[in-house]
Amino acid sequence: MAKAVKAKEPAAPRTKTVAYDVAEQLRTPEEMAAYLDAWLEEAPEDAAGIARALGDIARARGMSQVARDAGLSRESLYKALSENGNPSFATVLKVARALGVKFHAEAA
Known about the structure:
Blueprint: H1 29-42, H2 47-61, H3 63-70, H4 74-80, H5 89-99
Helix pairs in contact: 1-2, 2-3, 2-5, 3-5
């Protein structure tokens, strides 16, 4: 009794994935401000997320330049705005000023 030979199906092409970096999408000051505003609106109590959003904007602008404009070292800026960073409010204000963004307060 002869064994039936199954024809091999062609392998599906592999999908190549790349890491998404929001900093690559933030091209204009208006986009940067809208991104930060969305974080402040959608997650106002997520201090770490808001700090990361500032970090994303800083990377889009150029971390070295932002650090110089904020009067901080590049390394301390990366650390403060990283996922595990915990920047002081003074640092947040310096970075915001260096980025050219303003915080806005309104009655809740």
